[in-house]
Amino acid sequence: NAMFSWQRTFFHFQPEGNWMNDPNGPLYHKGWYHLFYQYNPESAVWGNISWGHAVSRDLITLAYISAYAMVPDQPYDVNGVWTGSATILPDGRIIMLYTGDTIDGVQVQNLAYPANLSDPLLLNWVKYPGNPVLVPPPGIGPKDFRDPTTAWLGHDGKWRITIGSRVGTTLGVSLVYTTNDFIKYELVDRFLHAVPGTGMWECVDFYPVSVHGSKGLDTSVNGHGVKHVLKASLDDTKMDHYAIGTYFSNNDTWVPDNPEEDVGIGLKLDYGRYYASKTFYDQNKERRILWGWINETDTEANDLAKGWASVQTIPRTVLFDHKTGSNIIQWPVEEVESLRLGSTEFNDVLVEPGSVVELEVGTATQLDILTEFELEALGSEKATISEEGCGGGAAERSSLGPFGLLVLAHQSLSELTPIYFNVANSSKGSREAYFCADEKRSSKAPDVFKQVYGSKIPVLEGENFSMRVLVDHSIVESFGQGGRRVITSRIYPTEAIYGAAKLFLFNNATSANVKATVKVWRLNSAFIQPFS
Ligand code: FRU
Q1: Residues near ligand 1 (Cβ within 6 A)
Q2: What is the ipTM of this complex?
Q3: Which of 73, 217, 477, 485 is the most exposed place for a label (fewest CB within 10 A)?
Q4: Taking the CA of residue 67 as centre, how many other CA atoms within 13 Å lie in the half-sphere pointing to its CB?
Q5: Hey, what domains does the chain have and what are their CATH numbers?
């Protein structure tokens, strides 16, 4: 379908057509990365949920290999083959656990495995004939029991999985089960964790991170120098929330480092349009990789007209940020750098208060941009910005900001998306920085939901403000301060498309100069196509 064809992404994964949501069961096997995803093979709206399947040698150039890796064809999943996770056992066997929506509309957990483990492409999947292996336990609603995690091995030699749910309507919880064989399970008599007021937890993710190391950890690793990330996708906020804490394997509970930054009330994995993410351990390169779903923000009618809906993010590596000690770091996998074509550098570009400066890079629809900003205050007045820091958007000026990039910007500035920092003096006299994305002027199309997104961001003593931005036609992924905060935008330019898309620096501070050093690569397409 040619309609809105300029919105198609060229290095982000999206199916050839129809609806996609959550990433499912990512794994590495015999030289191939596998990405499964919630897929409607028939239409661009949610329904008939099956597992689509794509494979890749390098995580970036994915090939569609099946729209029907698993289909809803059994009483225990006939209303949908929903989200699930893979576990690779020490002997190499692969366990896939997924949620089935049954013929009675009950959420149950099912077991599947590859028909032929020696097939690197894992084309055929067998559903265990004794499914379901888990049904909602007493006290848990039949529609509040979904999205099993990757399993980890406990101190007692038993495997564990956790599954998000809620108790009543508001207490968000994650249940833990132990198992020896992935067929019979025992419910642990306490929650891994529970947070009042957070509602239903979907797509829970639970994994270790190394406090000092620069490698990812396999899911069962625990002990000294290890913290655990607990992530829940909240049905109420439609955001992925996480917290860092300690996993106590003796009683299968997890406790946040900072109770004020607990799951659902603290950090978000991504402050933009992003949901239902999932990590996996890549044993090939010893790293933990995160995939997330970028949903649409236009109307269902538009999705039907264009014949597709949704994109997956660029896979990101996840590490603990030992500099701040309080967040994870997300960074595009190094393989994305193989798409880099020519680069252009701009050094110490002075951007004066209230000005924009074009960065001439040719067509600016597929870019990898690295930027550092030095902020020089000209006056002595205190910078005060609105409470939320990003709230008013990039047009709301104060003495020290906002400043940053205008991506997917038309020459006339009729359409533009500012990715920026805003800075204020805190009551304690120190500076507070915010990292933001303002979609309000990103599109002239009607019926598009446009929002200002962002978060306070740690900028440490001696650091400049820095960001990396990936631009791919209608997707902008922005990484602040080396990946301490991330914002994904799904935008719908109508004029800033193809050769009309440009890149600018801007400085909307009233009394500060900004000096920017920018390196911009044009990115090649990833040539995502059917497997051949
Ligand atoms: C999250 C989710 C999951 C569920 C799946 C169904 O987006 O609602 O909880 O398993 O999507 O497609």
Answers
A1: 21-22, 38, 49, 82-83, 99, 146-147, 202-203, 275-276
A2: 0.98
A3: 73
A4: 15
A5: 17-324 (2.115.10.20), 335-524 (2.60.120.560)
